Amino acid sequence: MKDVVIAGYARSPFTFANKGELTKVRPDDLGAAVVGELVRRSGIDPAAIEDLICGCAFPEGEQGFNMARMLVFLAGLPQSITGATVNRYCGSSMQAIHWAAGAVATNAGDAFLAVGVESMTRIPMMGFNPMPNPALAARYSEAYASMGVTAENVAKKYGISRAEQEEIAVASHAKAAKARLEGKREAETVAIDAPTGRVSQDGCIRPETTAESLSGLKPAFDAAGSVTAGTSSPLTDGASAVLVTSLDYAKANGLTPLARIRSVAVSGCAPELMGLGPIGATRKALARAGLSMKDIDIVEINEAFAAQAIACIRDLDIDMGKINLDGGAIALGHPLGATGARITGKAAALLKREGKQFAVATQCIGGGQGIATVLEAI
Amino acid sequence: MTSQANSEIKKVAVIGAGVMGAGIAAHIANAGIPVLLLDIVPAGAENRNVVAEGAVSKLLKADPAPFMHKRAAKLVQTGNIEDDLAKVADCDWIIEAVIERLDVKQDLYAKLEAVRRPGSAVSTNTSTIPLEKLVEGLPESFRRDFLVTHFFNPPRYMRLLEIVAGPDSDAATVAAVERFADYRLGKTIVRCKDTPGFIANRIGTYWIQTAFNHAVDLGLTVEEADAIGGRPMGIPKTGIFGLVDLVGLDLMPHIAKSMLATLPEGDAYRAAHREHPVATKLIAEGYTGRKGKGGFYRLNRVNGERIKESVDLVTGEFRVSRKADLESLGVSRKLPALVAHPDRGGRFARAVLLDVLSYAASLIPAIADDVVAVDDAMKLGYAWSYGPFELIDRLGPGWLATALKEEGRPVPAIVDKLGQGTFYRVEDGRLQAFGLDGAYHDVVRPDGVLLLADVKRRAKPLAKNASASLWDIGDGVVCLEFHSKMNAIDSDIMGLIRKALRIVEGGYKALVVYNEASNFSVGANIGLALFAANIAAWGEIESMVEEGQATYQALRYAPFPVVGAPSGMALGGGCEILLHCDAVQAHAETYMGLVEVGVGVVPGWGGCVEMLRRWQTNPKAPKGVMPAVGKAFEMISTATVAKSAFEAKDWLLLQEADGVTMNRDRLLADAKAKALALAEGYQAPAKPVFRMPGPAGKVALDMAVSGFAATGKATPHDVVVCGRLAEALTGGDADPTEEVKVDRLLEGERAAFMALVRTPGTLARIETMLTTGKPLRN
Lengths: 378, 778
Known about the structure:
The complex is a heterodimer.
Chain A: E1 4-11, E2 15-16, H1 27-42, E3 51-55, H2 67-74, E4 82-86, H3 92-105, E5 111-119, H4 134-139, H5 147-158, H6 162-181, E6 192-194, E7 197-199, H7 211-215, E8 236-246, H8 247-252, E9 259-268, H9 277-289, E10 298-301, H10 306-316, H11 329-332, H12 339-354, E11 358-365, E12 369-376
Parallel strand pairs in A: 3-4, 3-5, 10-11
Antiparallel strand pairs in A: 1-8, 1-9, 2-8, 5-8, 6-7, 9-12, 11-12
Chain B: E1 12-15, H1 19-30, E2 35-39, H2 50-61, E3 76-80, H3 81-84, E4 93-96, H4 102-115, E5 121-124, H5 131-134, H6 140-145, E6 146-151, E7 160-165, H7 171-183, E8 188-191, H8 200-218, H9 222-229, H10 241-247, H11 251-262, H12 268-272, H13 277-284, E9 297-302, E10 305-311, E11 318-320, H14 335-340, H15 344-362, H16 371-381, H17 388-395, H18 399-406, H19 413-418, E12 424-427, E13 430-434, E14 440-442, H20 452-458, E15 463-464, E16 468-472, E17 477-482, H21 491-505, E18 510-514, H22 526-534, H23 538-556, E19 562-565, E20 568-571, H24 573-579, E21 583-587, E22 590-593, H25 607-616, H26 626-637, H27 645-650, E23 659-661, H28 667-679, E24 689-691, H29 695-710, H30 716-730, E25 739-741, H31 742-757, H32 760-772
Parallel strand pairs in B: 1-2, 1-4, 2-3, 4-5, 5-6, 7-8, 17-18, 18-19, 19-21, 20-22, 21-23
Antiparallel strand pairs in B: 6-7, 9-10, 10-11, 12-13, 13-14, 15-16, 16-17, 24-25
Helix pairs in contact in B: 1-2, 8-15, 9-15, 15-17, 21-23, 22-32, 23-31, 25-26, 26-30, 29-30, 30-31
């Protein structure tokens, strides 16, 4: 089996859906801009790329037509590169990385683009034609549980107070704001030309967020609950991409790999507690890598909701100092299909920047799933 | 828009972004006209446009909304006088609405004269400074293009525009402004003479002063004065003190000062003018009215509760408000009885009316040549139901002259001439008004205006019952008029619609559904439904629903065009009739909505089905069976009411081709023209077929509703109502692969209605709405 590396990572700015600066940008154009720039920055010969795998949670409308293949054309890449669109909801683009890694490992190609795209402005959550199975809904309504309700369920089950959730939200904004101030995200960000002008900065971060300002918000999903808009990731537009290659290919072709993929895992859990997904997935991935949490230096855990992130951090016993160094999804935003490639690419980049040994990227997924990737310095 | 003259005005500038200037700019934007809004650069301001920009953001938040659609705000370009004045060169009309100071205005005019295009109209919104003084010393080229255009607050909603042309004003310039204000801004123009306060404020200011005086002298409370001085006289329920709170107490001394500075010697206002210590005290304590912490009335927070309090006119202290309890209020529906009542309420009414009506009559011809102008000004500028001369007629022939003589007061010349007659009469079907020359003259409508009121004076209805009438409005067009209480739709109206179908088919070209009440229709008569439900007459209710559906369907597929022409509220069943017209010509101030869930039912006369049809055939909607359902569900489940005709288009309550008329008085003519245009080669529409999501779609909607229930946005009975609505809108057990006929969807709509009307939650909602006028959130 070949060693697999992450040989490049880039993303668009993440901005608020419906009111941010990317609302007028088609998601496929957004994805193509990021892909094109990643290929250019990485220095890879485009003709050497085998396949483009694109994660998207609602692959319809402007995100339809097997968007992965369209990204090849839109980005002006050789037509020899094929395209496959994958949907594992929020885990879609991390899944794209996993499939690319599996393909490299089994010698099914040397270089893959793993991409994630989601315009939550232009394609509504649940899509344009939500039509759940009435029989399943009647027998097992949890299968369709709304995400906010699952966050409330987790908060209740783990006894996570509103104040604890707000604390992590404040920290997320503070870390994100600090990283922006220090220019720490410039290397990964691709400026996007929108009809309204060039967009080069993340748009969801609110540095002025305080525990006090959050405490005034009303519960967003349950009048008697603890989860608010301030402790949830916002609806976001964005795209991200990761270049996955074999270590041999990267070395031979002068690429600069960020990290080696050590192990991967997915894991199912109760859909009404979908926020706990990272627990099972991370445990599996760590076991496959022969590591334990205390070996891990860097953790990128998606903050879909503060409540579920806290539950996972607690259950997996993660040191808070290792988490989401440049801010998490509560501050940066969570464009569903694009988040997996962001946190995996980010974890790889952080390993290199911080000079550490091991990293984990993990996230929860609607329907009751988790996904995790263990990375190792090269 | 159909009814616009070839207007030369394509861009407007408003200088001065205060309450009036900004409101005028917003209303010009409502007409779809780009407008430049300029104000000063405050000393030391970093953002030089801060005043004008601040005004626009205030406009966007104001309630009632100055913009008819938030999109209109984009037509307002902001700037400042120092940097941007040269931009007025592109404007065809420049409106000055700066502070009421002669030197400031004249200085601005001189600057404008240097940059504006010759021939562009320049007008002032002054309410107090005579035109003569404003143009003093200015070149002839400026005087020729200058006039007074006096708007009323809020400019979007008040229909009066007082116009004063000076001796040097160019007739064509004035005509261009008038035409624009009439067709595009929807204003009724009243030509005034160059006298202080023009017409409405001249009489209004005196009215407020004299009413305040009499209230104090006769020992009335503010509640009593407003109860007598409001509705019984056909004046908005704010009365006098409530109105002053609305306008701003602090403005009153300024208005008084400027009136005293300009009114002729011997004017009755001079004698009436008095400073009331209670008002002075309130202003000194910062009680400037509703814009501040209160005025004669305030809302006081006591233990977290908001208590309405009123000022005691004697002590000047606040106390808990008391509902006026006067014997005279019992007879207040009849004005002659009210003024004859011996209690303080009756004496107050008599004293105020004697003063105001004799004052108004004494100002003919000083402020206007005819009584119609004065009546129009008070009705459209102060929202009185009757003008002073109409009030005189309502008090009875000879009453005013006799009462004045009894008190040894002079009788105004025109009242004296009138003798035992009335100011208005109908002669050969024509409305006429009494003139100073002692003769009656036809009341002449502006060119192109067609009023049903005039039609009704001339002719007998083609058909009539207690709730509706049919009128021949000429050129082969029939008008269906509702006149039930609040124009609620009942079986009489349904009956007359069916009769109309026969009559029109039998010899006319088209039908227009129109009336001249303040509201087109507030919906179905739910009182009848409640009565039937209380005696468990379910069959009656079902046939009422069926009859309504069948009647509206017959209207839709009639072999001739039907045009709806609403103004004001068109809710529930009143909205549904418009949805079944071939086309609608709406007054811009039309408030449409399917609000049935407020009383716990679903639209049952085809409203659900028609909204589905509109969204399913909308080329902008995404493909698939759910988007149309989602849009209809969103609007109906939240009882959304569009706040203007333009907003109604967003919801497809009005369609792309439907017209909007800005001027209320031109609505019927526009609707008739639309009907006649459609009548050329008219073919009834084909019956639509639908693709419906069926149970899967209902699950999706139910999931959304349970989310709203969890956050408390949906009440328990909302969940019940929304469940039935979802079933009706998704097509019941339909399968997306099969076509569904309209009749099956109508059946589903009816079933949902019938299921809901049997629930206690819905009956409680209907009962609450009937008794309180407010929705019950159970």
